[in-house]
Amino acid sequence: MPQIAFLECSRCHHHVSADTPQTLCPVCAGSLYVRYDMDALKRSARRDDIAAKVASSPASLGMWRYSSVLPDVTPVTLGEGWTPMLRSKRYPGLYIKEEGANPTGTFKARGLGLAVTMAKHYGLEHLAVPSAGNAAGALAAYAAAAGIAAHIFMPQDVPFANYVEGIVYGADVNMIDGLISDCARIVGERIKSQKDANTPANETWFDISTLKEPFRVEGKKTMGYELVEQLGWTYPDAVFYPTGGGVGLIGMWKAFEEMEALGWVSGKRPKMYALQASGCAPVARAFDEHKPASEFFQNAQTFAAGLRVPKPYGDYIILDILEQSGGKAIASPDDAILASILDFARHEGIFLSPEGAAATAAYDQLLASGELKPTDKVVLFNTGAGLKYTDMTAEAMHLKRPGTLPTSLPVGGIITPQ
Ligand SMILES: [Zn+2]
User: What's the CA-to-centroid distance between 390 and ligand 1, angstroms?
Assistant: First the structure.
């Protein structure tokens, strides 16, 4: 595993040392990327060594099969990554990357697996996160595995599973009457007041928010490595990615850059598509208006809870990647998202998360318009298991549990339709 050479600002390219925990660029508050000595990496990291390493070392399971391009630390792992790449039964070019197979049932396990690993490496004892739901659940699990305290802040109307998992994992669970942006403000205020009060370092919370520390992107980049390896070390034509905070999209683009530098893949990079819900579509709106950054999306509302991010911190990076790759951002209304959940469940046997279904709804739309062909090679991310959203999906379907289930059948009675 390689040493980190330095952290580099995504905006002004300022370098920061990785010897101590870092948050944002001290010059411009841009997000930081992890950088390695690529010449040394070219000699030490070979894609053909991966399979043998995985076979010989249990520590190389899941996303840690890519340990040759991840920081040199002892992993806090629950088996995240190396998720199935399912072929669609109807569209010959469509591959569904099933991130619901991760621990805690979502793609958040990758970023928080690595971020908590690094927090343990640095000796941090308290981690705090504002979350649309699933990041909170993943932090709670990995913090428990690492013996670190987790302070999670999420909207009070997140999927019930996110509340329950936080409690079950023993996190400090805070349900907020507001959106993730309100949660982020509260976490920031708490940390500032701790610093103002000269709270001892080991009791001060560390903010592990999306793109406000460098390692969640670094963990999520493994999705880019995986999809290329699972396609025989080739690129697809397009990647469809449900975009709330957009960490995975940013991480995958970083992975493509690294893999090209290492000679692991060549050819044209995929077009990147950021998929959102019409009720909260800051990136799609900025993309349509050709703006370099998004504006705060007022009155955000969608049952795709993970997409309720009114102003993603890395919006300027996401929009740049969409532009560079020739992709786009598309927003779908909740009724199209629900229809796509039912369509894929009934015709493919896949219970998508509402976020994943925002991607399939956009896929259908592009097929219908002829912009995409069923034979185009598309990797579409189902970012979480549909089962984490049973309450939200049932509500969207106006589905209620039958009020009175019989506890026993009447003996000798005749059962007739009611
Ligand atoms: Zn900077």
Answer: 41
For the cut 80, the answer to whether the pLDDT of residue 404 exceeds it is no
- Residue 53: inside a domain, yes or no? no
Q: How many domains does the chain have?
A: 1
CATH assignment of the domain containing 372:
3.40.50.1100
Cβ atoms of 225 and 66 closer than 8 Å:
yes
User: From the CA of 314, how far away is ligand 1's center (Å)?
Assistant: 13
Measured in Å, residue 125 CA sits from the centre of ligand 1 at: 27
* Res 408: pLDDT: 64
Q: How far is the CA of 361 from the centre of ligand 1 (A)?
A: 36
Beta carbons of 135 and 162 less than 8 angstroms apart: no
316 CA to middle of ligand 1, Å?
Answer: 13
Q: Is residue 263 part of a domain?
A: yes
Measured in Å, residue 207 CA sits from the centre of ligand 1 at 18
DSSP assignment of 251-275, as one string?
Answer: HHHHHHHHHHHHTS--SPPPEEEEE
Per-residue pLDDT reduced to its tens digit, 35-62: 999 999 999 899 999 988 888 887 789 9
Span from the CA of 318 to the centroid of ligand 1 (angstroms): 16
- CA–centroid distance, 254 to ligand 1, in Å, is 17
Q: Is residue 365 part of a domain?
A: yes
Indicate the pTM of the whole model.
0.93
pLDDT digits (tens, 9 = 90+) for 229-280: 999 999 999 999 999 999 999 999 999 999 999 999 999 999 999 999 999 9
Kindly state whether residue 302 falls inside one of the protein's structural domains: yes
Supply angle C-alpha 75, 77, 81, rounded to 5: 110
For range 365-369, the mean pLDDT: 97
8 Å CB contact between 269 and 239: no
Identify the band that residue 418 occupies on the pLDDT scale cut at 50, 70 and 90. Answer: very low
The tokens for 148 are 């670190």
State in Å: Cα 324 to ligand 1 middle: 21
Quote the domain boundaries for residue 238: 85-105+216-396
